[in-house]
Specification:
The chain is built from 13 helices and no strands. By secondary structure, it is mainly α. It is found in: Cell membrane.
């Protein structure tokens, strides 16, 4: 397992390097000039030239990339064009909001997807299985932005059960923080649940075909005990690996949800940086999100190997 982990970490290095090249090239393809976008079209040309020199935008692209990559290797994420503050400081301020949303959305996902996947997988081909499978297919087809808009119109504007937007740190006011977190977390959790429900169903169907399941039924054990104590427990390694993919999907989906609900996290920071042509911020965030995807998937695979000797041996 240790050699596998080291090999995967070494493999992540060229992946991150390629991602850095793509992110650097992508932001240069965004129409418009970042300094003009920051100061306005009627800005003083002298001031524009000074700022372009300050941020190194007057240098050749290869030199710009080399300077940025060198800074990243040394832990310097650069300075935001827009706020002219260190990017690391801005990101650290946004992390708690994203973690709060992601944690709540993960809880919603687990409460919906695991029971649905187990129920469908224990009765493959049944009416319940068909209903859950159809529901997950429908859920996969509905974009998170559209789902969030519907929930906002229904729960916040029509029924007035929860606020439509806003953020309060949990430490400041736990009750209000939970009320404000509910709607975006429900949106993100419902959007991701179909993925995990289908993966859970596949894992349960596979385990339910093992000989010990009919043997447990022959012993007269209750269906609930068989589902939880035998099938779900033996499907746990596959579910742990699927959980890594689920968390990665939560990270990606949070960008859309945070923008929709005006949630002050890293996802909203990504959208703002792209629209404001903040080159340095976009490059840093793309690389951070890429690193998070790699770490989460690696953690899921290693956890699966620790739980399942067959995976560990392979």
């Amino acid at each position: 397992m240790l050699r596998y982990a080291i090999r995967r970490i070494l493999l992540a290095v060229p992946l991150l390097f390629g991602l850095s090249v793509l992110s650097f090239g992508y932001v240069r393809l965004i129409p418009g000039d970042p300094i003009t976008a920051m100061l306005g079209v009627n800005s003083n040309p002298t001031v524009v030239a000074q700022l372009r020199e300050r941020f190194g935008l007057d240098r050749p692209l290869l030199n710009q990339y080399g300077d940025w990559l060198t800074g990243m290797v040394h832990g310097d994420l650069g300075v935001s064009f827009r706020s002219q503050m260190p990017i690391s400081t801005i990101i650290v301020d946004r992390i708690p909001a994203t973690l709060q949303l992601a944690g709540a959305a993960l809880l919603v996902t687990l409460l919906i997807a695991i029971p649905a996947g187990v129920a469908a997988g224990m009765r493959p081909g049944s009416r319940l299985d068909s209903m859950i499978t159809s529901a997950t297919l429908f859920g996969l087809a509905v974009p998170a932005f559209f789902l969030g808009t519907l929930l906002m119109l229904l729960l916040a504007l029509k029924l007035r059960l929860v606020p439509s937007q806003g953020y309060v740190p949990f430490a400041d006011d736990p009750a209000q923080s939970l009320r404000l977190t509910l709607l975006p977390a429900l949106t993100l959790g419902l959007a991701i649940s179909p993925y995990l429900a289908r993966l859970t169903r596949s894992a349960v169907v596979e385990v339910a075909q093992e000989p010990f399941v009919p043997f447990a039924r022959a012993k007269g054990l209750a269906q609930r005990k068989i589902s939880i104590g035998y099938v779900l427990r033996n499907a746990l390694p596959s579910l742990v690996a699927a959980l890594g993919l689920t968390i990665a999907s939560l990270i990606a989906g949070s960008i859309v949800v945070e923008a929709l609900f005006n949630w002050p996290g890293m996802g909203r920071l990504v959208v703002g940086a792209v629209t404001e042509r903040d080159y340095a911020m976009v490059q840093a965030l793309v690389l951070i999100y890429g690193a998070l995807f790699i770490v989460v998937n690696l953690a899921g695979e290693l956890a699966q190997g620790l739980l399942d000797p067959r995976v560990r041996l392979s």
